[in-house]
Amino acid sequence: MSLKGYKEIPDAGLILNAPTSIQNKTGSWRSMKPIFHEENCINCLFCWWYCPDSAIIIEDGKMKGINYDYCKGCGICVHECPGKKGNKALELVPEKE
Amino acid sequence: MRVAITGNDAAALAMKQINPDVVAAYPITPQTQIVQTFSQYVHNGEVDTVFVTVESEHSAMSAVVGAAASGARTMTATSANGLALMWEILYIAASLRLPIVMTVVNRALSAPINIHCDHSDSMGARDSGWIQIYSESAQETYDNLIQAVRIAEEARFPVMVCQDGFITSHSVEVLDVLEDKEVREFIGEYKPAYSILDVDNPITVGPLDLFDYYFEHKAQQIVDMPKAKDVVLKIGEEFGKKFGRKYGLFEAYMTDDAEVVVVVMNSAAGTTKAVIDELRSKGEKVGLLKPRLFRPFPAAEIAEILKGKKVAVLDRAMSFGAQAGPLSIEIQSALYLAGATASDTPVSSFIYGLGGRDITTDNIKHAIDVAKEGRHGHFEMLNVRE
Ligand code: SF4
Ligand code: SF4
């Protein structure tokens, strides 16, 4: 991304074309990766509430997986996931490549 | 219409006629009367303003920042330690380019605690990015506040309008006031460039800005601030055409043929005019230059008036450890940039009136006598005991 000069940017540090966070793919930060085990999911959506990057994919009110473009691997969803009968539906594993 | 009111009530009346959307303020001597009188206008339904009572000046400035970012016309008032408590948010208000108008009643900063006039409060805030306008009288405070609304909105910087604590804030003066309708028409309707409440056009205000863009945003302030001079001039001119009282960047009083010029701001300029009238009647060529706009500083314009004359600068604040008070340093820098020298334009610097100490006509005559001797670099405190 080339940097702009002061004549080319909105003043006061305003961001007028929100939401620019979509341009910033925080998935590249990941060193740990959450894996979804659908069989243990009770669809409580705790993971969706807690995820700081809105990286939990929900369809028809059901947890469907993780958007790895933005998931930065913080592990909060894994920590919060109650799962089924003591088996979590989210597991944190080391990022491979 | 003519009314006899104090400088504080003149400021409150201007606020009433401006009828801002939001005022957030906290009382502090000698400004208290302004927000007290204004809150009565709010209580009586004479204004449409939402008045936010806050727990400190830090919160007052924070609340008007939020309101201004929402597109509201906002005002506040403070003095001395209250202004100091706003410090952090003063910079934020200016850096976000929010057109907040604040009436400042100049008072000494503690310690020791003192409630009387000097300019150490607003002079300390001179680098914060606010436009600063100084007022000699209640009339000027009133006129400047009304103009400040337009200046802030057109220049897109916050404006503080200063007057002297107690000396003008608590003295009754006969004022020419405008009709509500005239003020309303003069300031017009505020059309903000953006609002954080506009959900159809979402924006982000105040994001993190590190070594990649912070400097560029500061560069915008550095480049844009001097342009506010033209806005101040244009609006001062328009005010004069409409209401008969024209305002510029400064007032030059009998400077044309003057051999010695006194530079002084706010109420002491009135005392200085009396001295000048007296000395002129005895044939002495003396004049006064009273800066009205201190930020942005009209350096070239002031140097043009002063170059070739003997100058006495009277400061009601000290920048401790500096060569002189802040006004004198500014004047000397302006003169040097304009090519003036110690021999053609000697500058003597004086500190007066700290903590409300009187400045007498004899003190001013003494400063003129020193300047007349061409004592460049002379520094002296007036009316202080050794
Ligand atoms: S927190 Fe766990 S159980 Fe709840 S919806 Fe998310 S993955 Fe499923
Ligand atoms: S690991 Fe963190 S960022 Fe990734 S989905 Fe879970 S909560 Fe969101």
Describe what you observe in this structure.
The complex is a heterodimer of chains A (97) and B (386). Chain A has 97 residues and is α+β, with helices and mostly antiparallel strands. Chain A has a single domain, classed as Alpha-Beta Plaits (2-Layer Sandwich). Chain A contains 2 helices and 4 strands. In chain A, the strands form 2 sheets. In chain A, strands 1-4 form a two-stranded antiparallel sheet. In chain A, strands 2-3 form a two-stranded antiparallel ribbon. In chain A, strand 2 and strand 3 (62-66) form a beta hairpin. The longest helix of chain A is centred in the middle third of the chain and has 5 residues, at 46-50. Chain A is elongated. The model of chain A has no long low-confidence stretch (mean pLDDT 94). Chain B is an alpha/beta fold and 386 residues long. In chain B, strands 3-2-4-5-7-6-12 form a 7-stranded mixed sheet, sandwiched between helices. The mean pLDDT of chain B is 98. The complex binds iron/sulfur cluster (2 copies). The site of one iron/sulfur cluster has 14 residues of chain A, from helix 1.
What keyword list fits this structure?
heterodimer, A: 97 residues, alpha+beta, Alpha-Beta Plaits, two-stranded antiparallel ribbon, 4 strands, 10% helix, elongated, B: 386 residues, alpha/beta, six-stranded mixed β-sheet, 40% helix, binds iron/sulfur cluster
Secondary-structure map with pairings?
The complex is a heterodimer of chains A (97) and B (386).
Chain A: E1 32-36, H1 46-50, E2 56-59, E3 62-66, H2 76-80, E4 90-94
Antiparallel strand pairs in A: 1-4, 2-3
Chain B: E1 2-6, H1 7-18, E2 22-25, H2 32-43, E3 50-53, H3 57-69, E4 74-78, H4 80-85, H5 87-95, E5 101-106, H6 120-124, E6 131-134, H7 138-155, E7 159-164, E8 172-176, H8 180-187, H9 214-224, H10 228-243, E9 250-253, E10 260-263, H11 268-281, E11 286-291, E12 293-295, H12 299-306, E13 310-315, H13 326-337, E14 347-351, H14 361-372, E15 379-381
Parallel strand pairs in B: 2-3, 2-4, 4-5, 5-7, 6-7, 10-11, 10-13, 13-14, 14-15
Antiparallel strand pairs in B: 1-8, 6-12, 9-11
Helix pairs in contact in B: 1-2, 1-7, 3-5, 7-10, 11-14, 12-13
The complex binds iron/sulfur cluster (2 copies).
